[in-house]
Write a structure and sequence with these properties.
This protein is an alpha+beta fold and about 180 residues long. It has two domains: about 80 residues, no CATH class; about 90 residues, ANL, C-terminal domain (GMP Synthetase, Chain A, domain 3). It has five helices and five strands, in the order H-H-H-E-E-H-E-E-H-E. The radius of gyration is 28 Å and the shape is elongated.
Length: about 180
């Protein structure tokens, strides 16, 4: 799961929880009011008096509405933001034929290619719409030409998969002194 998906799901869960709790509180307050019982959480009489005295020109009313508008726009933008694709289109020489590669499978193939490079101890990959980012670790103190070798291996593997339109980006970390 991508960080964007995680943030979107977390925001959706928090908004849903707030709406459910707010709805339950409103229902409880309405029932208590209809039964003639004292308020549980919201002082209805005080709030009712305060609300009836407010006008659309009041600064506080405008600030509350602006805050609600901003929160709604932020949630809308978070929901509309495109995440990473699940399928990556592969270049095909046959007219009218299109192939796709599952992004996760391509990431695993790129990681395997990076790990086969001399000096690379471990690697991880992330493939987006236009680039393939690989983070590799080495036991050597100096990375030397490992980044170039890893980049060449990744570029070759992407070409084998038909994803040669992706830009490889390699980051290699050496051992600390």
């Amino acid at each position: 799961m991508t960080p964007t998906n995680t943030i979107n799901r977390l925001l959706a869960a928090l908004v849903a929880l707030a709406l459910v709790l707010g709805g339950l509180l409103a229902i409880a307050e309405i029932v208590l009011g209809r039964l003639g019982r004292p308020f549980w959480f919201i002082p209805r009489q005080q709030w009712g008096n305060w609300v009836t005295r407010q006008t659309w020109d009041a600064t506080l009313v405008r600030l509350i509405l602006a805050g609600m508008l901003l929160a709604g726009l932020l949630l809308l933008l978070a929901g509309l933001r495109r995440g990473r694709p699940r399928l990556l289109p592969v270049a095909s020489e046959a007219p009218g034929v299109q192939f796709d590669v599952v992004r996760r499978g391509a990431e695993h193939a790129v990681v395997a290619a990076a790990r086969r490079t001399n000096g690379v101890r471990s690697a991880s990959a992330s493939i987006g719409r236009s680039k393939a980012t690989v983070r590799a670790k080495t036991d050597a103190r100096s990375t030397g030409d490992i980044p170039q070798q890893t980049s060449a291996a990744i570029t070759a593997r992407l070409a084998d998969l038909g994803l040669d339109g992706l830009r490889p980006r390699v980051k290699v970390k050496g051992k600390k002194r």
